[in-house]
Every structure is written in structure tokens, then in C-alpha cells.
Amino acid sequence: MLSRLVLSYPAPMLSASLVRSAVQKVPLRTQIWRQFGQDSRQGFQSRSERIAVRRKTLKEWATEPAGPNAFAIGKGAVAGGSLLGLGALCFYGLGLGKDSNTILNSSMVWPQFVLDRSQSTYVYLGSSVAITAVTAAAIFRSPALFNLVASGGWVSIIVSMAAMIGSGMIARSIPYQEGFGTKQLAWAAHCGVLGAVIAPLSIVGGPLLLRAAWYTAGIIAGLSAVAVCAPSDKFLYMGGPLAIGLGVVFASSLGSMFLPPSTVLGAGLYSMSLYGGLLLFSAFLLYDTQRLVKQAEHHPQYSLEKFDPINASMGIYMDTINIFIRIVSILAGQGGNRRR
What is the span of the domain harbouring residue 141? Predict the structure, then answer.
């Protein structure tokens, strides 16, 4: 309608300069679309640049050097777990719990076969630790064997993991018979393999290993006392959360192989594997102790499949080894910090 009005005016009434300026001020459709396209490209480019900067910042944050307090959260978690364990020991040890159905009270009326099963299980547990320690010491004293087990690389890691898993599966699968037979040989071989795996820890020195052994013994004794004084099924419901935690610690351990602990992300993964693993296997010890007692109490006395003290002791044995390895790592790190 406006165009028609403009065109209806007589030509003399509009000067040429006015018409020219009016036409120049009215934007053409092609100019509008061109300007809109340029604005869109500029907006997309600026958004892409912001995303690139954000991703670059995240990468820089993950790979930047770790600060002096990189392991503060892990140390705090371990300290909190220690206080919680001491509190539980005092609470259940003094009989303040409402439930009197504890392993300690039940042990007073155990039949002889339950006592024998528990004793034989802990005898195999102590023998497992002894075989592992003797094997590690013997390999450390042999330069050729020590260089073989201490050599780094993926081949060594894969072979070690395959040997541990394979020997453990073989030892568990063989039926138990009293005396010294095939089952006992496979069990001794499995303990020897674990001794070879932890032999490189001997490089930190005898005094530090002795301290770590005493600390491990104290943790095992304290947590075992908590499991015995607590209600007999208090920790048997932790199987699901413990399995999830094991997956997290395992993934953190794998990630720490690729990322050095000197970076922020690597320090977080290493802290999860070290301090989180210490808390995890301490909780596993509570669970495995009560599961052992339950198996000893409820396994049929006159069953064709005999009670297997070797298989019953392997859970606590692996908890002990994992706790010991992490305590050695923590003590070695503290010694390095003091030297600096």
C-alpha cells in the first residue's frame, strides 16, 4: 500500500535527491538475509570458541601439577574411618549394643566341630601369610629373580595378574581333603605367587616393612574384634556396596597406571586407589570375618562336601595383603616427604 502511494505522486512533487536517499535507506531483502547469515556465523563461531576454551580449560585443570594438599581428602577419610573403627570397637566391646546375638556370645556354646573349623581356617590364614613373606624375602635376596619380578611393562603386569587369578582359581576349585594333598599344594603355590608379586616392596627397607607389618596386624586384630563383638549379621549386608566400591577402586588403580600422580586427575585416582582401597579392604575384613563364622556354623557336619578352611581363609588373606600393600605405600610416601 505504501509503494502505491509513493508511485501515485506526480514526479515533479518529489526531488531526485530525496527519492535516491529514500531508496538507499530502505534495506533490500538480499541485504537482510546476508546480514542475518553473517550474524549467525559470528554467533556460531563465538559459541564454538567458548566451547573450545572450556574444553581446553578442563584439560589444563586435569593435567596441571597437583598441589601440596592433593591427598588431604584421602588422609582425612582414613582418619575418619580409624575413629569410626575405634568407636565401634569401644561400643561393641563394652556391650553397649542392644543385640546380644554376637559371635563372642555364640562362641561360648559352639559345638566342637565349629571350633575346629574356625581354628583350622585361621591356621591356614597364618600359614598363607608366612609362605608369602618367606617367598618375598627369598626372591628379594636373589638378584636374578628380583630383576625378573620387578621388571616393569605391560607384559609383566599381565603375566602377574594372570598368575594370581589362575593360581587362585585352581586352588579354590580343588575339593578339600585333610592332610597335605593336591589342594594344599595349589594353595601353597598361590601364596608363593602373591609373595613374588609383592617382593618389589622389599626395596623400601626392612624397618619400614616391619612397621607396616605391625600396623597391619593391629588393624586386622582391631577389625576382627569389632566383627566378633558386633551382632553376628551386622556386616553381612554390605556385599553389594563393597562390590561397587571394589569396582571403583579397581578402575582408579587402572587409571593411575596411565596418569602420573603428579597431576590433579592422577593424584585423585591414586588417592582413591590408595586411601579408598585401605578403607574398602578394611570393610571387606569385617564382612569376610562374619561370613567365615557363618559358614563354619551352618555348613552341614555330615555333608559329602567337607568344610573347606582354605577357601574360607582366602578372603581374609587377600584383605590382609591389600591392607599391607597400602600401608607400605603410605609409609614410604611419608618417608619421602620427610626427606624433602
Answer: 73-339
